[in-house]
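Action item from last meeting closed. Structure (495 res):
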């Protein structure tokens, strides 16, 4: 069946066939628990399925299973790991239609966005398949008295706490390098998007990943997520989510000195100088903030405009934002839904507070619905202009389709504004002056800078933040570092 057939079936019946409704441990779906939670379709604001809420016993079994599996997987030859991970990429692509539709219904994003996420997930497995047999150490020159070299060894059991905005590709960007490095996995998807991680774990086994190597426990973050963070058998914890939960997770992991990767979001700036083309700036800013309904850690949520081009850029951008049709992700809209009612209320509270401070709201500013059905959790594409550096709309991560505009005159001022939040994930600079582009790029306190484009780069580039955006890098060859530990070996050459 094509994605269109599956989508049509869902839009007619409100049901999706063959959804796993419980945890995936030791290569199979476990019997459903008595404690269940409803999963909602954000595009309709209606429940469409239930899933199991895990308890201490489920998480304990998953970690014990992963610990056993890690002991044998580290002995599998790098070449064999490479073959299996390439199979995973193929199996994901064969199941892309089903995975994409489930992702739309569970997360609220558009079908085109979900299809992009599944392809990225397949590419991540392909990319790290290619790295599995290249995890070499190095030979170290200690003179003639010793032969010295390093080994890169797998860390063991790895824990992955997954957010709801990119449930498939965040799963893949942690699981693929972990498996390539010889580690095993326990993953916990977010409460509002439990299904694709379960399906992907099943597909991994179908592709030849040994049973028990990848386990998924669904449930509450404060419950099974916290248990995972506290468990000493987890040797590397990869967390993506909010700053407050990330700090909490770091505190829970600290007594065991567990290795951590924290990816905690941002308030990323797009800086446009007076020599930039207003059309290109408006186009970059449009995609930077309205992709995935703004629910992206690296969204371009601040547009920092030189005063000379402010009016031109904002006229184009506001007109485009006004033409956006938000609707159910399976009906080919310009923008999908907000993932949960709770998160929609958070976005609304941020924007209401800005309005009550007298914000210069150029467009949007309120919740809306899918106009075809009158249902769903949607927020209007919103642009708020002329904000001061200390305004909460500039400082707080809103995580929705809300763009904050700041204005500047000098290069120093632009740099100061861009770096003037507690976040430091990515940044972008639009200018025709190469020297200025490089000066600004070098001054940015963040993990990635693009010039004259916003979403430049891909999974081949390391990704991660500075300051409260977190630490550690995922993607790229650097993404393997979290899952390997370096051991130095020296051999005396004495006779
Ligand atoms: P969250 O940080 O609470 O949830 C992220 C993940 O952490 C989920 O899987 C959740 O179950 C788990 N979790 C929650 N509490 C936990 C705990 N005590 N111990 C272990 N795991 C726990 O995020 P949220 O409440 O779903 O969203 C709130 C904010 O987080 C958003 O407004 C946004 O700013 C941010 N966010 C960022 C990203 C990102 O990509 N960086 C993704 C999602 C959300």
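Sequence:
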């Amino acid at each position: 069946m094509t994605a269109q057939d599956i989508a049509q079936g869902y839009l007619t019946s409100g049901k999706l066939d063959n959804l796993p409704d419980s945890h995936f441990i030791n290569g199979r779906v476990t019997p459903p628990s008595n404690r269940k939670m409803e999963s909602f379709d954000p595009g309709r604001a209606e429940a469409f399925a239930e899933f199991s809420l895990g308890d201490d016993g489920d998480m304990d079994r998953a970690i014990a299973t992963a610990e056993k599996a890690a002991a044998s997987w580290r002995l599998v030859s790098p070449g064999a790991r490479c073959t299996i991970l390439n199979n995973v990429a193929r199996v994901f692509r064969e199941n892309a239609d089903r995975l994409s539709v489930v992702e739309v219904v569970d997360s609220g994003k558009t079908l085109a966005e979900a299809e992009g996420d599944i392809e990225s997930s397949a590419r991540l497995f392909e990319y790290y398949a290619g790295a599995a047999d290249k995890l070499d150490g190095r030979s170290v020159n200690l003179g003639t008295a010793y032969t010295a070299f390093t080994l890169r060894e797998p860390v063991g059991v790895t824990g992955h706490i997954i957010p709801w905005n990119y449930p498939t590709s965040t799963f893949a960007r942690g699981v693929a390098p972990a498996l390539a490095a010889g580690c095993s996995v326990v993953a916990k998807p977010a409460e509002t998007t439990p299904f694709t991680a379960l399906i992907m774990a099943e597909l991994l086994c179908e592709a030849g990943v040994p049973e028990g190597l990848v386990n998924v426990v669904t449930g509450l973050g404060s419950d099974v997520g916290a248990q995972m963070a506290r468990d000493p058998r987890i040797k590397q914890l990869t967390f993506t989510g909010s700053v407050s939960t990330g700090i909490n997770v770091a505190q829970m992991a600290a007594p065991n000195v567990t290795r951590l990767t924290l990816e905690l979001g941002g308030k990323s700036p797009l800086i446009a100088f007076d020599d930039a083309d207003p059309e290109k700036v408006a186009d970059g800013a449009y995609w930077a903030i309205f992709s995935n309904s703004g629910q992206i850690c690296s969204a371009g949520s601040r547009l920092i405009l030189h005063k000379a081009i402010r009016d031109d850029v904002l006229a184009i951008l506001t007109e485009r934002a006004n033409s956006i049709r938000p609707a159910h992700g399976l009906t080919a809209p310009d923008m999908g839904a907000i993932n949960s009612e709770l998160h929609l209320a958070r976005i609304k509270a941020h924007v209401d507070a800005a309005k009550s401070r007298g914000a210069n709201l150029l467009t949007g500013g309120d919740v809306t619905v899918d106009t075809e059905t009158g249902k769903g959790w949607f927020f209007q594409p919103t642009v708020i202009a002329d904000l001061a550096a200390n305004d909460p709309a500039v400082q707080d991560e809103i995580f929705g389709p809300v763009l904050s505009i700041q204005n500047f005159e000098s290069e120093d001022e632009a740099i100061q504004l861009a770096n003037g939040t507690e976040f430091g994930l990515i940044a972008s600079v639009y200018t025709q002056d190469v020297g200025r582009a490089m000066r600004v790029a070098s001054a940015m306190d963040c993990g990635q800078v693009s010039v004259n484009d916003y979403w430049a780069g891909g999974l081949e580039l390391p990704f991660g933040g500075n300051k409260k955006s977190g630490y550690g890098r995922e993607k790229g060859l650097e993404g393997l570092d979290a899952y390997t530990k370096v051991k130095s070996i020296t051999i005396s050459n004495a006779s």
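Note appended to the action item: Residues 111-132 form the longest helix (22 residues).
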